[in-house]
Design goal:
mainly alpha; single chain; elongated
Length: 58
């Protein structure tokens, strides 16, 4: 029974580690893309997002 508990604990730790690595990968990817994107492209993306949320912008 002790072996099962240790195995479940190790599995949960591996899942958490995988989730952290995946979140960090996506987060760094967003920062990288936003950092190298032209300002006009970022403005257009924010403007289009405001329209999709029915938020008046002009």
């Amino acid at each position: 029974m002790t072996t099962q508990v240790q195995t479940l604990g190790a599995t949960r730790t591996n899942e958490r580690l995988g989730a952290v690595v995946l979140a960090a990968f996506f987060g760094l990817g967003l920062v990288f893309m936003a950092g190298f994107a032209p300002a006009q492209a970022l403005h257009n993306a924010a403007h289009d997002f405001r329209h999709t949320q029915n938020f008046p912008c002009h």
